[in-house]
Amino acid sequence: MVSKAATLAPLWLLLICGAALTQVMALTVDSPKGRRFICHYTTWSRMRQDDGAYTIEDIPGELCSHVVYNFVGIDEKSFQLTSMEPEYDLGENGFRRFAALKDKYPSLKLMVAVGGWGHGGEKFSKMVEFRDNRRRFVASVVKFLHKYGLDGLEVVWLYPGNYDRGGNINDKDNFFYLIRELAQAFKTAGKEWEVAVQVPADKTRLDAGYQIDALCEAADFIHVIGYDLRGWWNNFADVHSPLKDRQHDEDSFEGLNVQSGVGQWLHNGCPATKIILGVPLFGRSYLLSSPEENALGAPTIGAGAAGELTNEPGYLGYCEICQILPAMTTRWDDVGQCPYAFNSDEWIGYEDERSLKAKIEWAIKNRLAGIYAFSLDLDDYRGRCGKPYPLTRALHAYYEQTKNETLVTWP
């Protein structure tokens, strides 16, 4: 005689298996786009002298899944998307030459970034303040993407809600409305356009201007800035993209690192499958107060000398750093997982293939959607220290190995 429990067992198992299958299906659908490696192109790098000039035609599209054109802006009167360098973007056909990369690299995705540090935040703040202003901006974005056949927009508002950047208390809500309205407009257009948002890792910036959970739901991707977390302005020598907290990280510098910065987005409801970690192809340099003090945290008296190509004190591309490293002493931050170098006068914190590998492994372990690198013109693109694009190639290798992984966010 078969017991009643035995006859019910198959039904019980069927229900369990069905529930499990439903959950797995939901998890798999969570991110059908796979992992990505996003490269950034800067228009101002074309102004360098001789073979230092970096042009659209130099972009190694075979190494990237996406390339982002930096930058376009917001017209302060019409609130529409506008060129920041019309003589180049339009006069020299910068936009069309960029779009033409698809002829050479058919699978390459192309995006444009609006904003940036030099653009400031005030124009954003005024644009998002009223719905009609946002409508004009969104309509101009749709028109722009149609015209040039691009694949999406990256919003680089640095930073909403921050008064020192021209923001106000209403930015936090209005920024979310903008991203939601962009996403809705892209869907209505019937295109597979994406809206990405570049965001800080600094908690003090986040609290003032970002509805983390809502913003992550509205945007396709969140690009977390994992660099410029330190600099010569702090008056002590340090790497600017540390992976974790070190012993000397105290007060406002505690938690100001890649792991904690991304963690704030994850812990506040943003799925890992939407997060892209930003890594630098540049270093931050300092003038040491004393030749005898050169460890992490050593006192400094200002920015290091400007480089021949980047021409900005306290800022050096890897293309410049790799050439001066043989004349410097190099060290490794065991916890921050970054290299640094110094001589009697200057100190540089930067990234190399080893440090980028550490960030790649961390991103994979935490199932992030990918990496973005800023920027192509800061790598050793002419191969003055060896094979061209050493850092970009290291990042590309990671992308090739993991691009087809199914990205899953567990509940």
Automatic annotation (TrEMBL):
Positions of the GH18 domain: 35-402
InterPro entries the UniProt entry points to: Chitinase_II/V-like_cat (IPR011583), Chitinase_insertion_sf (IPR029070), GH (IPR017853), Glyco_hydro18_cat (IPR001223), Glycosyl_Hydrlase_18 (IPR050314)
Stated name of the protein: GH18 domain-containing protein
Assigned keywords, A-Z: Disulfide bond, Signal
Keyword Transmembrane: no
Pfam families for this protein: Glyco_hydro_18
Endpoints of the signal sequence: 1-26
UniProt key word Cytoplasm: no
Cited SUPFAM superfamilies: (Trans)glycosidases (SSF51445), Chitinase insertion domain (SSF54556)
